[in-house]
């Protein structure tokens, strides 16, 4: 298969983790005889520094012309700590989602058996956790009308949804649930919000077309508790933009590190794949950032194009790295392996089909990767 992939490294650790994902895609190319063409462009704080625009037109055009976008991370403290800043890195990502029509954000939350001890939650609570969050991405309070009075003392953000916006992501979530455990949970605040009541009305009607899927409802405050108390009860969670943003980050701590979770943002024509973690500027250039979420995002990209065997090869290589303890310090404080070494190991294991591979520790210490 031939694919054109736009690379948006972004800020902070974004370029470092994205490099490792590309290594793995190149290993897939070599192993499965595909051709992927990569083109890189600026987005976020680095784009603001260069052009004053967090999403330059050249970047947007590149993404529109590509088959898929692989994204690093976005954000910079100099904007986070300045409430008066009119232009912010995150505006670039929000605009990109809107321009590409990426209305559905898909975030798997799965616990790796080898990392159960890393979670702040008890093993008996999280063992077997495997659910997916379908978050609506282009509507709601993030994109609604924003007002601030002249005195700067009263502000408002409009949360607005249409039946069409709800319907299109609901169908995706129901279809996903059909192929999983056939249970879908709608998370809302229908006891308070009119927009949530519309969500319930639309989703309830759509559920009639999916009789094999059990539909459940939870208020978002209860859902936030249940994700911690009993995460195994969930299969597919469907929710609106802001609620999804919050509970997906909550779900990320279940597995012990936000550096493990990938995501896909899809629309009718375009698709973007990115780790859910932020730019983590404190780790920039230190070779300590966990690249696994970015690598698993690349696996989701492969799945999106029907390359299931290729995606599985990436996931199996990730599993090997976790089982052998070839991980970054966020997963093992005593680890001698860095971002690049973990990426090398995973990429090497995609190419090499041997089951029992060992990393040469001396070469790892030198910043090299060899299989023996």
Q: For the residues shown, what is the average pLDDT?
A: 92
Rg is 21 Å
Helical run tally = 14
Helical coverage, percent range: 40-55%
Q: β content, as a range? A: 15-25%
Q: Tell me about the biggest sheet?
A: 10 strands, mixed
How far is it from the N-terminal to the C-terminal residue, by CA? 31 Å
Shape: globular
SS content category? alpha/beta
For the biggest β-sheet, the strand order reads 2-1-3-12-11-4-5-10-8-9
Number of strands: 12
Name the poorly predicted regions: 361-372
Order of helices and strands: EHEHHEHHEHEEEHEHEHEHEEHHHH
Index terms:
372 residues, 10-stranded mixed sheet, 12 strands, globular
Describe it:
The protein has 372 residues and is α/β, with parallel strands linked by helices. 41% of the residues lie in helices and 18% in strands. It has 14 helices and 12 strands. The strands form 2 sheets. Strands 2-1-3-12-11-4-5-10-8-9 form a 10-stranded mixed β-sheet, sandwiched between helices. The chain has a two-stranded antiparallel ribbon with strand order 6-7. Strand 11 and strand 12 (271-275) form a beta hairpin. Helix 12 (308-323) crosses helix 13. The longest helix has 19 residues, at 14-32. It is globular, with a radius of gyration of 21 Å. The two termini are 31 Å apart. The model is unreliable at 361-372 (pLDDT under 50).
């Amino acid at each position: 298969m031939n694919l054109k992939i736009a690379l948006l490294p972004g800020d902070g650790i974004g370029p470092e983790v994205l490099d490792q994902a590309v290594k793995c895609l190149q290993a897939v190319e070599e192993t499965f005889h595909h051709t992927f063409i990569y083109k890189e462009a600026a987005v976020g704080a680095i784009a603001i520094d260069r052009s004053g625009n967090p999403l330059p037109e050249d970047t947007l055009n590149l993404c529109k012309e590509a088959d898929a976008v692989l994204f690093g991370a976005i954000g910079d403290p100099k904007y986070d700590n300045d409430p008066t800043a009119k232009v912010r890195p995150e505006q670039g990502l929000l605009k990109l989602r809107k321009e590409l029509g990426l209305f559905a954000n898909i975030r798997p939350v799965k616990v790796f058996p080898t990392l159960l001890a890393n979670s702040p939650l008890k093993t008996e609570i999280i063992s077997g956790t495997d659910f997916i969050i379908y978050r609506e991405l282009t509507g709601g309070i993030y994109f609604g009308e924003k007002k601030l009075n002249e005195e700067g003392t009263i502000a408002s953000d409009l949360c607005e949804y249409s039946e069409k916006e709800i319907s299109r992501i609901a169908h995706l979530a129901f279809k996903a649930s059909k192929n999983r455990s056939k249970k879908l949970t709608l998370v809302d605040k229908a006891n308070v919000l009119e927009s949530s009541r519309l969500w319930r009305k639309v989703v309830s009607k759509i559920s009639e077309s999916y009789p094999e899927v059990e539909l459940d409802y939870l208020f978002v405050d209860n859902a936030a508790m249940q994700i911690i108390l009993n995460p195994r009860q969930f299969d597919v969670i469907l929710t609106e933009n802001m609620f999804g943003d919050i509970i997906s980050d909550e779900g990320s701590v279940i597995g012990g590190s936000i550096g493990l979770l990938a995501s896909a943002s899809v629309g009718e024509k375009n698709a973007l794949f990115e780790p859910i973690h932020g730019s983590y500027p404190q780790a920039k250039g230190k070779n300590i950032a966990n690249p696994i979420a970015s690598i698993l995002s690349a696996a989701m990209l492969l799945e999106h194009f029907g390359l299931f065997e290729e995606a599985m090869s990436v996931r199996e290589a990730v599993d090997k790295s976790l089982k052998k303890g070839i991980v970054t310090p966020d997963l093992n404080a005593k680890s001698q392996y860095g971002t690049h070494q973990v990426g090398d190991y995973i990429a090497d294991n995609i190419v090499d089909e041997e089951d029992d591979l060992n990393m040469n520790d001396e070469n790892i210490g030198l910043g090299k990767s060899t299989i023996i």
